[in-house]
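Input sequence (77 aa), recorded before submission:
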Amino acid sequence: MTKHGIDFQEAVELFDGRPVFVSPSTYASEDRFETTGLFNGRFITVIWTIRAPKIRIISARSARNADRRKYRELHHG
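Predicted structure, token format:
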């Protein structure tokens, strides 16, 4: 995550109830998801999976343009 300029705490805070866009992520061995949202005026995407009973954050990066567009379509922002 830090190689993308996003620290773990920023990734965690994306799940604090703010508006986000969630989509499935393709990965062969487990179900993964991508959550895109705004954090401090910056679009970020967090890749995560469910490892019962918790969510496990795998990676975080700046959101791709397509994810930013989808977020704006859904949240009018």
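Checked by second reader. The chain has one domain: 2-75.
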